[in-house]
Amino acid sequence: MEKSKLGRMQELVDQLSKAAYAYEQENREIMSNLEYDQLYDELKQLEEETGIVLAGSVTQKVGYEVASSLPKVTHNKRMLSLDKTKEVAKLRTFLGNKEGLLSWKLDGLTIVCTYEKGQLVRAVTRGNGEIGEEITNNAKTFKNLPLYVDYKDSFVIRGEAIITYTDFYKINEALGEKEEKYKNPRNLCSGSVRQLNSQVTAQRNVRLYAFGLVEGGPVFEKKSQQLRWLKERGFEVVEYKQVTANTLEQTVAYFSQEIHNRDFASDGLVLTYEDISYSKSLGETAKFPKDSIAFKWQDERVETTIKGIEWNTSRTGLINPVAVFEPVEIEGTTVERASVHNLSILEEFKLGIGDKVMVYKANMIIPQIAENLTQSGSVAFPENCPVCGAHTLIKQDKATKTLICTNANCRAQRLNAFIHFTKRDAMNIEGLSEATLDKFLKRGYLEDFSSLYHLQDYKEEIKKMEGFGEKSYAKLVASIEKSREVKMPQFLFALGIAQIGLGTAKLICKYFENDLSKIQVASAEELVTIGGIGPVTAKELNEYFTLEENQKMLERLLKEIHFIREEVEQVIDSPIIGKTFVVTGEVMHFKNRKELQAQIEALGGKVTGSVSKSTHYLINNDNTSGSSKNKKAKELGVPIITEEEFLQLINN
Ligand SMILES: NC(=O)c1ccc[n+]([C@@H]2O[C@H](COP(=O)([O-])OP(=O)(O)OC[C@H]3O[C@@H](n4cnc5c(N)ncnc54)[C@H](O)[C@@H]3O)[C@@H](O)[C@H]2O)c1
Ligand SMILES: [Zn+2]
Q1: Residue 300 near residue 321 (C-beta atoms within 8 A)
Q2: Which ligand is nearest to the CA of 44?
Q3: Does the keyword Ligase apply (predicted)?
Q4: Could you report the per-residue pLDDT of 191-221, keeping only the tens digit for each?
Q5: Which member of 44, 61, 77, 105 is catalytic?
Q6: What is the reported pTM?
Q7: Which residue is closest in CA terms to ligand 1's atom 9?
Q8: Does residue 59 have its Cβ closer than 6 Å to ligand 1?
Q9: Mean pLDDT of the chain
Q10: CA 114 to ligand 1 center in whole angstroms
Q11: What is the 3-state secondary structure (H, E, C) of 72-100?
Q12: Partner residues linked to 319 by β-bridges
């Protein structure tokens, strides 16, 4: 056996497993579906050639291992994936001379719903096919799912939960500045359905389209009769058409055309046999049922030439590349730009101006680059932010490289800072929406925070602004005036210093007895002696006050406000206050250890580097490892907890 083949297989298994985990478990995509499917096919091919299937191969398992904190439920009937093809000819072979049903392959989240005595009693996600997550309360908020039906015996249906493009765009638009946008409706749907809080699900307009009755109910001869029965019970059923060898091609063409008129995402079609008992007789493979096959859109790929890369600074300071190319027509619309998402992807494509690339529309909607034919790799990352000109910085986070603007004053970032400053928990200034702040910034009314207290200089202009009048202007000014009186912790929090949440701000103010001048000159060494303040937080705070720019800004700002003295000390309510933690090994829930550390500190805990008698907990997801920290903790009787347990601890 050639060693290289086995090596390549191992590489593919690793890559695909990582992608599948990100896609299914974290609603993230680290590669496009096109790329995933190509690598998957390559792996399958190699497995067939060599007769070897490596442990953990994605060709052998369905979906994701359930790792969320939703309750787990074992499926009565295993849920499978679907074998896939991109060729109509393969569908024709599959159908033979039988009757079939062709329906949308909806790109959402598959849900199994159980009804007993005419009532919806349980809804569960597909999960890894054997074990799913119970989401009954969330399912009860779906827009079109019947909670009661006129059929008293138990039965179980399957369907796909989806969110329409219209709702997807609306929800993305309404997201706060700090929240990352959802990439596609599937992504959003998965996040909305696998939710601990069903009120969130309820706001997301999730819809369920049934595609099968899998247990109970009357016995039918044909699949179409079964679907009709579901419709009569009040379920919305996925759109389908009956096909034979003669009509197959034109029906596929019909769906491929119609998808452009639908408001939902579909990544292809599903073909299944009409004859239910025949279907049942076929059985299944380890991964696929033999009675159905998925047809994936043959994404139309078009060649074009890269004209340039646009760099867009987002409001969080991320600078994202967008490829601009010679306009081309794909599936009926003209396309001339595609997001390249981040630096890693840009590098992987080796993009350069003048490069010939193949572009396509993922799921026939979102433009993407599929392949770079010339790979000149000539695009350089901008050294300066396109908005403010400040230096950029490359940030490496796990496998992903991103570009960020280092300037906290960048308009995009400044907007964020003002939003934070005016928040309820901070300076509590009402009547200043994000859109208004953005307009003020653009017009140059806001130099720094102190400018808020001089908006009267622009009184006439503001009153003429859209959405403003005499009344709303007066209200805004009154609210700003009111904010001149502020408690010190709220003020410290409002400054937006990294790591300083309101709880931490309270701890600091208490220690320095509400004397800001002392806080401003405190050294990092002194700061760490405060219970609940760790080295990361101490460093951030110290650096903030050391910067001359910040000192000048504060000087101006402090002229505008005065502090309300607080005699009563504030107690923050946190179960880990004063507790000392050591963190080791890889983390999963947090981006990295630093983030976990910041969370501990924000809640009044402390993080140190080594385990000692005064350590309260060692956080380590692998308490069986023979690491020195584990050994030491066991020796000293320090409890070793997983991240999961830590989360439980702080949420108690
Ligand atoms: N981009 C990435 O990194 C990445 C990673 C993993 C998977 N993926 C994508 O996911 C795909 C594999 O996912 P999968 O195995 O979860 O799903 P699948 O593509 O095999 O879909 C099969 C499922 O679709 C559902 N379905 C929707 N409409 C249906 C209908 N009308 N009739 C019957 N069933 C219907 C069923 O639950 C069925 O089990 C890959 O092909 C790839 O495109 C992408
Ligand atoms: Zn900038």
Answers
A1: no
A2: 1
A3: yes
A4: 899 988 888 898 899 999 999 999 999 999 9
A5: 105
A6: 0.59
A7: 33
A8: no
A9: 88
A10: 22
A11: EEECCCCCCCCCEECCHHHHHHHHCCCCE
A12: 313, 403
